[in-house]
Amino acid sequence: MKKPVVISIIATVALLFIFFGCCQQVDTGEVGLKTWFGKIVSDSLPEGIYFYSPIGGNVVIYDAKQQRADFDTEIFTKDLQAAQVKFVVNFSLDKGHIKELHTNIGRQYEKKLVEPLSIAAIKDVIGQWQADELVPKREEATRLVYSALTNSLTRTGVKVDYVSILNIDFSESYEKAVEAKQVAMQEAIRAKNITTRIEEESHQAVITAEAEAKAMEVRAKALEKNKGLILYEAVNKWDGKLPVYMMGDNTMFLKELAVPRNQPR
Asked: What is the pLDDT of residue 259?
């Protein structure tokens, strides 16, 4: 083989190595970008194998699967109560905006983008409520954080998949104050229930007394109009025993009770 041919082959191989000497595999769930001396020279690359030059070339890989970011930050409520909040943000990268994300933010998108916007969103939302409103409204607060974070991150190429507030820890002094308030409220409710019961019992006693007085009044009037009712009442109350000693007008009572001779006893 002639020397010029050999040199030509070597030069061709060298050029091929320079331009295609390296390769990079993009796996499922990843997105690649081919660069040349730091400049993006391709659209977003799906899974596959890509060759690039070892001199100035590169294939940058981004993870497009769902990722999780855990945060622990101090916040202040509307009434200036401090609390330590732990929350989670699940997010993923929009494959169609990887070029913009790489150009504007780079590979440290979680630290530079997701973290500050997540903390800003939760501080803004928590700051809208009083401390005693926050715990019962945690689900509503979570929805508002998700909405605020979605609005701020979507345009950057990051999609918010899920937000969860794991824990809201107030200061010990505030928690003791809340506990004391709850105990006082329970005592107030118990006292109110006792007062209501006493009032109801008093009301029922008045009704009963009024009914008895009314009945006695009706009976007294009836006795005044019909003297025979007096004897009827006496008979109903008599136990059948005659008194040992009788004085005064007691004989009248016996006369009234006497059984006629022509009637069987």
From this structure: 47
Question: What is the distance, to the nearest Å, from the Cα of residue 211 to the centroid of all Cα atoms in its chain?
Answer: 53
Side-chain half-sphere CA neighbours of 154 within 13 A:
7
Q: Phi/psi at 167 (nearest 5 deg)?
A: -160, 145
3-class secondary structure, 199 = helix
pLDDT at 161: 95
**Alpha-carbon span 155 to 158, nearest angstrom:** 7
Given this model, what pLDDT does residue 119 score?
A: 96
As a whole number of angstroms, the distance between CA 154 and CA 56 comes to 32
Those residues with Cβ within 8 angstroms of residue 167's Cβ, 6 or more apart along the chain or in another chain: 84, 85, 86
* Domains observed in the chain: 3-63 (no CATH), 67-175 (3.30.479.30)
Low-confidence ranges of the chain (pLDDT < 50): 13, 16-17, 19-20, 183, 254-255, 257-259, 261-263, 265
